[in-house]
Amino acid sequence: MRQSTLLLNTLRESPAEADVISHELLLRGGYIRQLAAGIYTYLPLGRRVLRKLEQIIHEEMERAGAQEILMPALQPADLWKESGRYQVYGPELMRLSDRHEREFVLGPTHEEVITALVRDEIKSYRKLPVILYQIQTKFRDERRPRFGLLRGREFVMKDAYSFDSDWAGLDHSYRTMYAAYERIFQRLELQYRAVEADAGAIGGEGETHEFMALADIGEDIIAACTCCDYAANLETATARTGGHSDLNSFTAAVAARERIHTPGIRTIDELATHLQVEARQIIKTLVYEADQQIVAVLVRGDHQVNELKLQKYLQAEQLEIVEADALQRRGLAPAGSIGPCGLNIPVLVDYEVSQMREGIAGANVADYHEIHVRPGRDFALERVGDFRNVVEGDSCPHCEQGKLIFSRGIEMGHIFKLGTKYSEKLQAHYLNSSGKTEPIIMGCYGIGISRLLSVIAEQNHDERGIIWPMSVAPFQVHLILISRKNEEQTRVAESLYAEFTKQGIEVLLDDRNESAGVKFKDSELLGIPLRITVGKNAGQGEVELTIRKTGQSDSVAVETIVNQVKQHISNETP
């Protein structure tokens, strides 16, 4: 490709809409352009990277035994109503109607469509197992699109679905896809972690893992063990606990609880300062509405309620905290004064609270708290569970020595054991070897392909631009012709361009009538792995080879440069 004819405009300044470095560099490098919030055009360079990502995924899906299909992006709403997700999915689901007022959705995912397809195509156990996948554009009406390609309203995704006759088969399919994902992300040279996760709106009946790229801008927090391979998204992470204690677990007596005046105290920090105690000595009481039922949740003052764990425990469709101004309308004490003693609503107690010898809690009277509150004596321990976020330093739930540490991650892929969640609702059954009807056992496996452009740029850049891994770089070689007016330079550059092309090496020839400084700046911004500069030494049969990743430059004889480039490509392609 000649750069003089390439649709490429680089930007010297950071665009105003760029909010992270990957977004900035993809815009400045002419890889993408924004059409609307969360909606992007992929320019030629961006499309080349996208196609290489797709090719790697195609190869690993076929290696895993998956078969490619292509399903419609426009889906009948009736399918979503049949699965029960039409209302549950929420406002992110893009809904529309055709001219006949038939309802449709733009697919954010394809569980319903694939289940309906397999329901009609597979009737016998002899056709199982099978894994089907597609690469397609998805749509989600994000409330606040941001970070460029990392959170958009339209994006390219690979979604795969496995269909088995039993749970052992699903286990095998799941491990097969897990291994395929590891190979994909290793080929992309990404720093990542596979973590235990929540199934979210996809749902399911078994384990689920997210593949997280490690990055400071990540919206997800990963809790990982310092000693073993345990890692989980914060929303599902757990810590080692000795189980809850009851009144008989303590031999030392605790004084009777006592009411104290705490005027104007509303927060844990204010109470801790007022009483000169640590937050961990306070019992924090929060009130939630779960499917129209009011419950109280107790956590230590230095901990935060994990609403996902709470929602699962209650098996609630909807969960919302009752705001401070609504507490008294529900017959409760004002915010800051609510406590567990004498509450006439269900009280859920976090494990760590159940293990406290005594604590400080609201007295359920405005401007009063109680001291010497003892779990099991002063309030019941009937509903004890894990209702909090873990914190750094908590003990690992999988090993005895490890402690949990936090890092941030960007979700790149997510795999699920769906079980019979969709096959039961959509009547996707098969006949087993005994002629009995059974629901098909399903798994689901997604990768955000367009998101990977930003993830790779986020992990691979310097102050000058992107540094693409060889496996997905838009071109392998950037051939810089310093002066078009110099006949010897032009002859050498054109000769190398022809030879690289003949050898199947992807080369971008910068033949523009621009200064050397502009060409070098653009080359570093684009991030192509190898740069060959044809300059003043061309007449002596030498060119300069620069490695973008290390910045190392060497003079190389023209007659050996092609072989050296081949060697670099071979060494740098996993």
TrEMBL record:
It comes from Paenibacillus aceti. Residues 38-469 form the Aminoacyl-transfer RNA synthetases class-II family profile domain. It holds the Pfam family tRNA-synt_2b. This is Proline--tRNA ligase. GO terms for molecular function: ligase activity. It catalyses: tRNA(Pro) + L-proline + ATP = L-prolyl-tRNA(Pro) + AMP + diphosphate. Belongs to the class-II aminoacyl-tRNA synthetase family. ProS type 1 subfamily. CDD domains: ProRS-INS, ProRS_anticodon_short, ProRS_core_prok. InterPro entries: aa-tRNA-synt_IIb, aa-tRNA-synth_II, aa-tRNA-synth_II/BPL/LPL, Anticodon-bd, Anticodon-bd_dom_sf, Pro-tRNA-ligase_IIa, Pro-tRNA-synth_IIa_bac-type, Pro-tRNA-Synthase_IIa_type1. It is found in: Cytoplasm. Keywords: Aminoacyl-tRNA synthetase, ATP-binding, Cytoplasm, Ligase, Nucleotide-binding, Protein biosynthesis. Consists of three domains: the N-terminal catalytic domain, the editing domain and the C-terminal anticodon-binding domain. Catalyzes the attachment of proline to tRNA(Pro) in a two-step reaction: proline is first activated by ATP to form Pro-AMP and then transferred to the acceptor end of tRNA(Pro). As ProRS can inadvertently accommodate and process non-cognate amino acids such as alanine and cysteine, to avoid such errors it has two additional distinct editing activities against alanine. One activity is designated as 'pretransfer' editing and involves the tRNA(Pro)-independent hydrolysis of activated Ala-AMP. Its EC number is 6.1.1.15. It is an enzyme of class 6 (ligase). The gene is proS. Homodimer. NCBIfam families: PRK09194.1 (NF006625), proS_fam_II (TIGR00409).
